[in-house]
Please model this.
Amino acid sequence: MAPYCVLAARLRHALNSGVRRYHVAPVLCQRAKVAMSHFEPNEYVNYEKLEKNINIVRKRLDRPLTLSEKIVYGHLDDPEKQEIERGKTYLRLRPDRVAMQDATAQMAMLQFISSGLPKVAVPSTIHCDHLIEAQSGGEKDLRRAKDINQEVYNFLATAGAKYGVGFWKPGSGIIHQIILENYSYPGVMLIGTDSHTPNGGGLGGICIGVGGADAVDVMAGIPWELKCPKVIGVKLTGKLSGWSSPKDVILKVAGILTVKGGTGAIIEYHGPGVDSISCTGMATICNMGAEIGATTSIFPYNARMKKYLGKTGRAEIAALADEFQQHLVPDSGCQYDQVIEINLSELKPHINGPFTPDLAHPVSDIGAVAEKEGWPVDIRVGLIGSCTNSSYEDMGRSAAVAKQALARGLKCKSKFTITPGSEQIRATIERDGYAQILRDVGGLVLANACGPCIGQWDRKDIKKGDKNTIVTSYNRNFTGRNDANPETHAFVTSPEIVTALSIAGTLKFNPETDYLTGADGKKFKLEAPDADELPKLEFDPGQDTYQYPPKDGSGQHVDVSPTSQRLQLLEPFDKWDGKDLEDMLILIKVKGKCTTDHISAAGPWLKFRGHLDNISNNLLIGAINVENGKANSVRNALTQEFGPVPDTARYYKKMGVKWAVIGDENYGEGSSREHAALEPRHLGGRVIITKSFARIHETNLKKQGLLPLTFADPADYNKIHPVDKLSIVGLADFAPGKPLKCIIKHPNGSQETIMLNHTFNESQIEWFQAGSALNRMKELQQK
Ligand code: SF4
Model:
C-alpha cells in the first residue's frame, strides 16, 4: 500500500470508528498503570509499547540506537514497515500529546473546528501566556490582560471545553515551564505549537515545536509526519562550577553550530558531564536548541530527572522510568552524524548577541568587543525569567548575586525585571524570600507569562529609535523582538550574569574578575552564586489556574462573532487549478535574515492571532527589500509605486495576480508561528523561493498549500530581480525528489530557466493540490 493509502485508511478508520485515541497509552499498558499527569488520571504512560516498537526497529536496523532514535522510533505508527533513513525518509509518528500556547492555539483551534471532528484524539492543553503585556507588574498586568483579551480567552476556554482540551488560564505560567512541571517525562513524545517546546527534553522527552496545522493532525488522530532526524551528539565532560551555568552550554553550542547548524537534527547530550547539570538546567539547554534550528534536543534519563519528578509529585513516573531505564538512555556504541565535545570544567560564562543568538562571546570579552563595534556598553534594562531561565534554581542563583549587592548597600544600576515561569515558581520564590530579595535590589516582578520575551513590553525608558543595550536571560534576540525598537541591542546570557551586569550597569563588568564599589566606598567582588536546584520544602502550587475539560463537551457553545476584530472563522483556501503557476509577480525579494518575526511580527500584532485578515496587515513588514534596502517598502509592479508590503499584496490579490517571495538562507527561522504561512496564502502568495528554509516554517508553508522551493544552485538567487515575472512549470508532474523548473521573464523581454528543489513527499503534494492540508483532511472525511 502506498504511504498515502495507509494514511487515508487510518484516517477513515479514525473518523468512522468513534475510537479516536490512537496514541499508545491506555489499552496496551499492563505492567504498571501510571498516569501521564495528575490532570489526566486515565491516560497512562506506556513504556511497554515503546519497548515493543524499539525492539522491532532494533531488530530491523541491527545496530545500536541513540536515545532520540529509541524514543522517536518507539512512537512509529508502523514500526514493522516504516522506512527509516536519517535525513532522508519521512516518519509517520504517533505523539502522546499536544500543547498549544494562546497565540498559536487560536488558529489551531479554528482549524480544528473547521475539521468538523467532535473531540481531540490525544491529551491536549492550551496555555495562556503570550498575551499578557508587561507594564506595571504582575497582578495589575494580569488584570489588564484578562480585560483586554477577554474575547480570546473565552474562545479558547470554551473551545477547550467543547473539544476535550485542558485549559491553563492566564496567570498559570509559560507553556514550557508548565509542561516541565506537569507533562513531560522520560520517553514521552509531545508536540507543541511553539518553537521552544524542546524545553521538555530536559526531562528526557522528545518534545518538538510545530505549526498549528501539525497539531490539528495529531489532535485528529492522523499520523504526524517528520523527516527522519539526523542526530548530533554533544558529549559533555567535566563539571559545571562557579559562574558557568547550563545557559553557557547552549550559548557555546550555538556559537559552534550557528542558527542553522542543527537543522534537520536532534541534539543529543551525553557523557559524564551530564550529571553535573540540574534537570531544569538541562531544560534550559534543550529550550535554546531551537536557536540553532534543531528539531529538538534531549538528555538521557538520570538521577537529576528522578529528583525533579519526585519534587513535582511524579515519583511514580520516576519509579517506572527506573524499570525501563535501558530504553531511556542511548545504546553503547551508537553512532551520531556529528559529535561535539565540551569540557564543562573549562566552559566560561557566555553572552550572545546582539541581534542573533549565535554571536557568542565570553563575558570576559564582551565589554571590549562592544566598544570596538560601537554597541552601547551601558545597560538600560536587565530582564530575567522566560521559559528558558525561570526555574527555582535560576531564581535562587540570581537572588544569591542580588543578596551580595544588597549587603554592600548596592542596588541595580540598570532597570531590572523578573518573569517567573509559572504560578508554582512565583508562589514558591515568594514563600522562600527570593522574590523579595530581587525586588529589594530594584527588580520589578512581572506576571507569570512571556511578557517582554515576545515583545509584550510597554517600555517607557527610551523612545523608539534610541540606540541602547539590554541583557536578558531569554533565548532570542532578533532585531526588535523585545520592544519593537530596531536600535535595541539585545544580548542573551544566564540569569545570574544578567543580575550581576544589571547591578554593575555596564557590559564592561566581568563578575569573575572585576570589583564593585560598595556604599561604604570599599571595593568587593561578587562570589559565584550557589543555590538549591529545588526547594527544601515542597513546591507551593499557588493559585489553581487549570480548567479541566468536561467529560462530554458536546453541548458547549463556542463564540466567534462575525464582527469580531480578534477572531475570524477560517474559509478554505482555493484548490490548485491543475495548471502551472504562470507570470507571477515578485512581492518582495528579501535581503539577509528573514525570521518568522520579520514575516509576521509579534508584539502589538499578537492581538490579531485569531483573525487572519487583520493579522495579514503585518505580512513581511520586517523584511528588508533588496531593491531599496528598506523594510515595508516594495514596488507595486502594476502601478510602479512603492508602498507597504501588505497593501501591495492585497492589491495583487484584488487584481487576481498570483505572487512569489524570494528569500535568502534559513528563511523562516525562529518561532513556529504558522501565521507566517497563512498570511501569504491568504493574500494570494503561491510560491516562496529561497536558498534554504527553517524546518517548521517549510512544513507550515506546505500545510497551507504554498510551494516552498529552494534554488538548485544558490547563486541563482542573483538571477531574479524584483521586477521580473516567474513561472513554475511542470506542476502536472509534481513528484517527490523531482526538481521543478522556473522560467524568469525579465522586463526587457529576455528569459532564462533555473531549477528549483523541494522536499515534498506524496501526501504533501496532495496538500498542495487540495489547497491546504486541512482541505485534504476534509476531502478524506467526505469520502
Ligand atoms: S521564548 Fe519567550 S515568548 Fe516563547 S514561550 Fe518562551 S517566554 Fe514565551
In short: The chain is about 30% helix and 15% strand.
